[in-house]
From TrEMBL:
Organism: Paenibacillus lemnae
The protein's name: SDR family oxidoreductase
Keyword set includes Oxidoreductase: yes
UniProt family annotation: Belongs to the short-chain dehydrogenases/reductases (SDR) family.
InterPro entries attached to this UniProt entry: NAD(P)-bd_dom_sf, SDR_fam
Keywords: Coiled coil, Oxidoreductase
Residues forming coiled coils: 38-65
GO BP, sorted A to Z: bile acid metabolic process
Gene Ontology molecular-function annotations: oxidoreductase activity
Keyword Cell inner membrane appears in the UniProt entry: no
Amino acid sequence: MNIDLNGKLALVTGGAGQLGRVMVRSLAECGADVIIHYRSSAAKAEELRNEVKQTGNKVMIVQADIASLESVMQMKEQIQSHFGRLPEITVANAVEQYEWTSVLEQDPKDYQSQFETCVMQSVYLAKAFVPAMVERKYGRFIGINTECSMQNHPGQSAYVAGKRGMDGVYRVLAKEVGEHGITVNQVAPGWTVSDRDRDQGSEHNASYEASVPLGRRGTDQEIANMVAFLASDLASFTTGAYIPVCGGNIMPAI
């Protein structure tokens, strides 16, 4: 049993980032043509496009501000013009980075940025791409959440607020569009090892790993594996799910 995405078109926001680039590669390896979204990492996006082109897949890069409806709609038009169609698979992976601190010290602008890049990104992507999924009676709408949504550790408040708001959008959307053959799911990574960690030699953290039942940090490839699964027909009856990929560090209860 293989993950077969041949004939599918997939959009990954933040596709040139640490986790996004592995999602792009994995979706392409499964046969999908891919759209690599970026906001400011043009050189990295171009490098990844050249890499994916070597696989024979169709690929484009597109710049957009995912916190702006106008910009997302412009991205939609660029994709339509380039491919002559819109993606069956969207992965909302991009998020604004900021410095974590306590609620009392956190800049209110950080809460706004997290709301815009978690909640509103998802809303804008839905408005841009779900109507075409409804028309074709098929679609995969995937969001990258976080284990932090259940941890609620000190210093996480803006991030947690944005991701918990995002969770609400996905659960409601799943009920609204399920009748059209569209699945809506979230992947919730733990503290994940990426290329940055490999370059810095920081793959391990004893205190964190001690809390993980599987005894280690997950990898970017393991996150991408779950995304590819949810994008495929193997997950055709899975929707409305928040799926931790964190080695058991969090365990949603019934």
